[in-house]
Design brief:
- The chain contains 8 helices and 11 strands.
- The protein has a 5-stranded parallel beta sheet, with helices on both faces. A 4-stranded antiparallel beta sheet has the order 6-7-8-9, with helices on one face.
- About 40% of the residues lie in helices and about 20% in strands.
- A hairpin with a 3-residue loop joins strand 10 and strand 11.
- It is elongated and about 55 Å long.
- The chain has about 220 residues and is of the alpha/beta class.
Length: about 220
């Protein structure tokens, strides 16, 4: 899941970014609306966590821009104004959800996950292939009934592969979906993380490497 956090209060922005990364998301952080629009023009995000009172280009204008482009990116609007009128106005601008400050981080995570599910094609509550099952809501993965102890990146890679329903995913796409702007495009992070994931999944192997294509997961 790729998330853009656009919030001008840097301490809060960095805190949200760090917390969402701990939840296994790939997160980019910007501090003004102009940078937010630049990122949205070049990167496909599942969700943007958008402060309404951004400097440069305001959050309202960014909402209108996304709505006008019929973007699949879902908008969670943040604001210090929490009246019913403010919420109704924010939603009327094209925001998909509205969260007044201050908020509980657990609620922010739950809302981001719910919006991400709406940003993509509907998926079943539990993903599976052969004897492998993955429950995104519980952040739990199993093989033959045995719980797998996966790092956030390993879990995200497995989730991407299972959600692709047998399609080949290039390493570049996995890097974009699972990592974030801090990732070096020439890094071997995908290869090394995939190696660790395969080791934890055990035998028989289920992740196939397609020469000059990428990776896919097939029946166990």
């Amino acid at each position: 899941m790729r998330v853009l956090v656009a919030e001008d209060f840097e301490v809060l922005a960095r805190s949200i970014g760090t917390g969402l990364r701990r939840e296994g998301m790939a997160v980019d952080v910007v501090l003004d609306g102009t940078d937010a629009l630049d990122r949205l023009a070049t990167t496909q995000y599942d969700v943007v966590v958008l402060d309404r009172d951004l400097p440069g280009v305001g959050g309202d204008d960014i909402c209108r821009h996304l709505a006008g482009d019929r973007s699949a990116t879902r908008v969670l609007m943040l604001t210090a104004a929490g009246t019913i009128e403010d919420r109704v106005e924010g939603l009327s601008l094209g925001a998909d959800d509205y969260l007044p400050k201050p908020f509980a981080f657990a609620e922010l995570v739950a809302r981001v996950r719910a919006l991400a599910r709406r940003a993509t094609r509907p998926l079943p509550p539990t993903l599976s292939c052969g004897d492998i099952t993955l429950d995104p809501a519980r952040r739990a993965a199993f093989r033959a009934g045995r719980r797998l102890e996966l790092s956030p990146k390993e879990f995200a890679l497995l989730e991407c592969l299972l959600a692709s329903a047998g399609l080949v995913l290039p390493a570049e796409e996995l890097l974009e979906r699972v990592w974030d702007e801090a990732a070096d495009p020439f890094t071997s992070a995908v290869k090394h993380t995939m190696h660790r994931l395969r080791a934890k999944l055990g035998d028989p192997p289920v992740i196939e490497t397609i020469r000059e294509g990428g990776y896919r997961i097939g029946p166990a």
